Amino acid sequence: MTNIWWILVTAVFVAEIALRLFGYGKRISYESSLEVLWRPEPHQSALADGTNRRMTTIEHGLRLVPRDAHPAASARTVLCLGDSVTFGYSLSDDEAYPAVLQGALDRIQPGKWNVRNAGTNGYNLALVRQRLSQLARDGVRPDVILLGYCFNERPSWPGDQLDDDQNARIVRRVRLKNTLRRLALYNFFLDTGFGRHVYRLCLKALPKPAHATTKSDEADEAWLEHYARRIEALLADVRQLGATVMVLVWPDRSMAAGPYRPVLTRECSRHGVAWLDLRFVIADEEHVQALYFDPTHPREEAVRRMVEEGIAPFFAEHAASGGATAV
Question: Residue 99 CA to chain centroid, in angstroms?
Fold first, then answer.
């Protein structure tokens, strides 16, 4: 029996080393606190889920935006806020949309803009608002804020509807997941189709979260009113900072965005905030599935097209006008 255990331990150890050699090492780790629940740890180098591409974070947990030259002293700061679409899920540092936008703006208006990536996987508007408040206290003062994300807004998702005890449980789970994501075996398991299937089954088997505020996880009228208040509160915070704000509505091939998209665009129009719905970029694409890693996260080719055909010209127009026209 003892020999069997030694064989198993040795096999696990060898598998761990081998998988690290094939790129299944450390994933992104997160600082966790009651203030923001989670944000990327600063000054780390990690590998992306599913692709093992290089991810780098800098001060304040911002993701590195590679650039050919240092921004000019007079360059205006563009802070990109949002969820995994902004952070660049499964993409390398230079493939995430803020990095592609930096390159596009350098060609259009060389030296004028300094784009910074404050996207965080899993964020919704409530968490984005907390993140912005923390960054402001840390001295990050953007001239322009770009909000771009794919609607992690359902009632059971962490947000401003949670109490301190519920937030504390999330903090503990984030710290546990940080530990697991340092293991190549764990990362390999989640990256395989079988592993993702088992993971989804485990999630379905869990009891309904105690912090859900509706009888189901669907967006009813009361929840959508709550979501509208989230938008209004975030826009008010941005204006207190004196920044121009613009909103990017990313294509989502799942049904998750359905009830939230019209509320977001309505509130942006009501508050005089420019918004851009990026669905037009891929609307006529026959092979749209090939442009995505999954129903939500675009591959590098889709990101490049969205920046070149949509985001860069939209930004150039509305940054100059104060972001006051909806499209």
Answer: 14
Sequence-distant contacts of 219-228: CB under 8 A, at least 24 apart: 219/153, 219/154, 219/155, 219/259, 219/260, 223/155, 224/259, 224/260, 224/263, 226/161, 227/125, 227/153, 227/260, 227/263, 228/263, 228/266, 228/267
From CA 192, how far away is CA 109, in angstroms rounded?
Answer: 43
**One domain, residues 70 and 191:** no
Among 210, 227, 245, where does a domain finish? Answer: 210
Q: Which domain holds residue 312?
A: 62-162+213-327
CA 170 from chain centre, in angstroms, equals 18
**pLDDT tens digits for range 219-250:** 789 999 999 999 999 999 998 999 999 999 98
Is the alpha carbon torsion for 177, 117, 48, 206 positive or negative? positive
> What residues contact 220, with CB distance under 8 A and at least 6 apart?
214
